[in-house]
Design a protein that fits this description.
It is a single chain. The strands form nine sheets. Strands 31, 33, 34, 36, 37 and 38 form a six-stranded mixed sheet that branches. The chain has a four-stranded antiparallel sheet with strand order 1-30-32-35, with no helix packed on it. Strands 2-29-28-27 form a four-stranded antiparallel sheet, with no helix packed on it. It has helices spanning about 445-460, 465-470; strands spanning about 5-10, 30-35, 40-45, 50-55, 60-65, 70-75, 80-85, 90-95, 100-105, 110-115, 125-130, 130-135, 145-150, 160-165, 170-175, 180-185, 190-195, 200-205, 215-220, 220-225, 235-240, 250, 260-265, 265-270, 280-285, 290-295, 300-310, 310-315, 325-330, 330-340, 345, 350-360, 365-370, 380-385, 390-395, 400-410, 415-420, 425. It folds into three domains: about 10-330, Neuraminidase (6 Propeller); about 335-425, Sandwich (Immunoglobulin-like); about 435-470, no CATH class. It is built from two helices and 38 strands.
């Protein structure tokens, strides 16, 4: 089914009213933390949002439970805690309490803070998936080069640390999902994207285009990044199951500049400068439907987006300082045409059934039309059909074509629609088929039965009085 899908906004307990300077098409956004001091670097997993917060002077780590809703301080020991990342119950961050940058963690399920890496060199940019934390690590260099290290924190009292990539060229900005770790790597002379499979202990290139690739993120088999191959910063992606040899693909190549992508499932979000005024907005793209959407274009800066399932969070400047805002992905209304969906044979003038199903917010009435020229033109069937899932097409139009399609759409929103996957046939009987007594375009036993009945009832030779009396 060639679905065309639009978004229908869904309410939530914490959603606030639309801001007066919010553009039409924006999702309903809500404040997560609007403290008068600065909040930045948000991340989200399930119902928990985390960020770095400056309300106490230095940066601390705070969290917010969207389900309750309640705010919790995670780490307020002083100095600098920043770059938080979360997966399930585990939060990790960069921490300077010991004089250099280390990696610390917190287990929500036990309300326990723990140490991940306190090597004398700097460790920064942590990421986490399940029980594996990764970061960039400077222990092998005195300059600005970093390596990628990881740690199994299944037992937080005995973390198991290990190197992932220590190539001498320098590696930065790691991300992880499942057993795949990715990062920026400059071994080829410019920033490219490399990956490592923790299960097979195998390293592999992801994108080595001669331009620069930055800020990679991963969800499942999809890796996304910022790419400057077109002369500005765009968003590209790749399905790593197609490697080696698979092609990357553009997600957004608007000339204004896009950066800092995040991905969860089929949803990619990023900060976008297309609306000018030196301000960033938040845009997104649904890989499943190949459709771009607007998240937030409030007239001030929206930056540093993160996404998990249907929740998007970002840093927002609408109140004059950096706050944390969020929005929920709207619920989708979907129509799926079941039949005719390609290959069917329908007799012109007969009766047939059109079947479909719908999901998401209620669709009351649908409009149905057909084409006999493979979609070049359309003829209405009925524009006010109750959304029951079936429609008696009676009679099927008197046409003769093997290029027929049916199109069904929401009466009130034609963008919610579906069309036959492939063409089907509506056919007329040949005038020369005189032995077809039943009118079904077949000469078969039904026709012989009709012939025999007439012969017995009307005699041979034909006797109209016999027919009338029998």
């Amino acid at each position: 089914m060639k679905k065309q899908i639009v978004f229908v906004l869904a309410g939530a307990a914490v959603i606030l009213a639309l801001s007066p300077n919010m553009a039409k098409g924006d999702f309903d956004s809500f404040a997560i933390c609007a403290d008068s001091n600065e909040q930045n670097n948000p991340d989200v997993s399930e119902n928990i949002v985390v960020w770095s917060d400056k309300r106490s002077g230095g940066y601390d780590i705070y969290s917010y439970d969207l389900a309750e809703p309640n705010e919790y301080p995670i780490c307020t020991v002083g100095d600098v805690q920043t770059q938080p990342a979360i997966s399930g119950d585990i939060i990790v961050w960069t921490d300077k309490r010991n004089g250099n940058y280390d990696i610390f963690g917190y287990d929500f399920s036990t309300a326990t803070e723990f140490t991940i890496c306190t090597n004398d060199a700097d460790q920064q940019d942590p990421a986490i998936s399940g029980n594996i934390a990764v970061w960039c690590d400077k222990r092998n260099y005195s300059g600005n080069s970093y390596d990628i290290y990881g740690c199994d924190i299944s037992n937080i009292s005995e973390p198991n640390e290990f190197p992932i990539c220590t190539d001498s060229s320098g590696q930065y900005c790691p991300a992880i999902d499942g057993d795949i770790v990715i990062w920026i790597d400059v071994r080829d002379g410019n920033p490219n994207i490399y990956g490592y499979n923790l299960t097979t202990e195998t390293e592999f290139p992801i994108c080595t285009n001669s331009s620069g690739q930055y800020n990679p993120q991963i969800s499942g088999d999809i890796v996304v990044w910022v790419d400057d191959r077109n002369g500005d910063s765009d968003i590209y992606g790749i399905d790593i199951t197609t490697l080696p040899g698979g092609s990357d693909f553009p997600i957004c190549i608007d000339s204004a500049g896009q950066s800092l992508p995040a991905v969860s499932g089929d949803i990619v979000v990023w900060q976008d400068k297309r609306n000018g005024d030196n301000n960033y907005d938040i845009y997104g793209y649904n890989l499943a439907t190949s459709s771009e959407f607007v998240v937030c274009t409030v007239s001030t800066d929206q930056k540093q987006p993160a996404v998990n399932a249907n929740t998007i969070v970002w840093q927002d400047q609408r109140n004059g300082n950096a706050d944390i805002y969020g929005a929920y992905m709207p619920v989708l209304s979907i129509i799926t045409l079941l039949s005719p969906n390609g290959g069917e044979m329908m007799l012109a003038g007969s009766a047939d059934i059109i079947n479909w199903q719908s999901s998401g917010p209620t669709i009351d009435y649908v409009s149905i039309e057909y084409s006999m020229d493979s979609g070049q033109s359309w003829v209405p069937i009925d524009s006010n059909v109750p959304n029951t899932g079936s429609f008696d097409w009676d009679p099927v139009p008197i046409v003769d074509s093997n290029q027929c399609l049916v199109h069904i759409s929401d009466k009130d929103d034609p963008g919610i629609s579906d069309i036959s996957d492939n063409v089907f046939t509506i056919f007329k009987c040949s005038p020369s088929l005189t032995a077809d007594l039943s009118g079904d375009c077949y000469v078969d036993f039904d026709d012989f039965s009709l012939f025999a009945g007439q012969w017995l009832n009307c005699g041979n030779p034909y006797d109209p009085n016999w027919c009338a009396n029998n």
